[in-house]
Amino acid sequence: MTAKKILVLHTGGTISMHESENGGVETGVENPLTGAKLTLPDVDLTVENIFNLPSEHIGPAHMLALQQRILAAGTDFDGVVITHGTDTLEETSFFLDSTLAVDFPIVMTGAMRSSNELGSDGLYNYHSALRVAADEASRNRGVLVVMNDEIHAARFVTKTHTTNVATFGSPISGTMGLLTKRQIIFFYDLPKRHALPIANVKQNIPVLKAYAGMDGQLLELLAAANIDGIIIEALGAGNLSKEAANGVLYLLSRDIPVVIVSRSFNGVAEPVYDYLGGGVQLEKAGAIFATSINGQKARLKLLIGLDNQLDEATLKTYLHQF
């Protein structure tokens, strides 16, 4: 049997950190995973430390660098594993999933406990990710997130708990698969979609969460700040106060794309209510509903759409699709 060639890209995060004497978790010069001895028959690893950053320090420029490295790898590898901090892992995985059209597995993992903490989960998650990346059944599934014996699709995964090792979940789709001691099991396939290329990630796109009593003042201030678009995490299925709705109308009058998602943890955003601030009137005015994703992912999707210079109708379709 020919050995599977897996490219490992370490980016930092808790999985590469250690707990100091005073109990704080901090970065170090050495990544504890670099010298990890794992028993994986018929797997050859090429390991690179591409970054050593807390995930809060990772932005679209770093995501683009990862994407470019994977594209450069071409057909030289049978799979890619990326270790990453958990706070923004869902965003990096979504960015890669949305911009890479490859058939080999790309698997992201991290840890909630650093390398020398009691019950550290990093090495186990790393081993699990390598298993999934080397499995033939993982091909053509887009980017996967593997932690805590579960497999999630980048399209739907989100961090659900601040500290629990079982932090990642997929509220809309459910867990895509799981690992046992002997098996890797997938429960479903996702609908296919086209990834879009990307060359520039400099667009200025803020994310704003709606709240009771929200007015339009902040939206008008943002309109004057040379933003390229805005994501609003609206109430319920996609509704706003009438004052905030007037702010949206002002943004749209300035040809600034406004994308509506829900601030709710579960469900989809869609226009239902037909009054000032209701989703129906927001959509009629020109706001775009990103149906199935949260604010941070919608921001990346809008960034990708704008970089591809999608026209208004195509951008709407792109943001609306699952």
UniProtKB/TrEMBL annotation:
<protein>
    <recommendedName>
        <fullName>asparaginase</fullName>
        <ecNumber>3.5.1.1</ecNumber>
    </recommendedName>
</protein>
<dbReference type="InterPro" id="IPR006034">
    <property type="entry name" value="Asparaginase/glutaminase-like"/>
</dbReference>
<comment type="similarity">
    <text>Belongs to the asparaginase 1 family.</text>
</comment>
<feature type="domain" description="Asparaginase/glutaminase C-terminal">
    <location>
        <begin position="205"/>
        <end position="318"/>
    </location>
</feature>
<dbReference type="InterPro" id="IPR027475">
    <property type="entry name" value="Asparaginase/glutaminase_AS2"/>
</dbReference>
<dbReference type="InterPro" id="IPR037152">
    <property type="entry name" value="L-asparaginase_N_sf"/>
</dbReference>
<dbReference type="InterPro" id="IPR036152">
    <property type="entry name" value="Asp/glu_Ase-like_sf"/>
</dbReference>
<feature type="active site">
    <location>
        <position position="86"/>
    </location>
</feature>
<feature type="domain" description="L-asparaginase N-terminal">
    <location>
        <begin position="5"/>
        <end position="189"/>
    </location>
</feature>
<dbReference type="Pfam" id="PF17763">
    <property type="entry name" value="Asparaginase_C"/>
</dbReference>
<feature type="active site">
    <location>
        <position position="14"/>
    </location>
</feature>
<dbReference type="InterPro" id="IPR027473">
    <property type="entry name" value="L-asparaginase_C"/>
</dbReference>
<dbReference type="InterPro" id="IPR027474">
    <property type="entry name" value="L-asparaginase_N"/>
</dbReference>
<dbReference type="InterPro" id="IPR040919">
    <property type="entry name" value="Asparaginase_C"/>
</dbReference>
<keyword id="KW-0378">Hydrolase</keyword>
<dbReference type="Pfam" id="PF00710">
    <property type="entry name" value="Asparaginase"/>
</dbReference>
<dbReference type="InterPro" id="IPR004550">
    <property type="entry name" value="AsnASE_II"/>
</dbReference>
<dbReference type="InterPro" id="IPR020827">
    <property type="entry name" value="Asparaginase/glutaminase_AS1"/>
</dbReference>
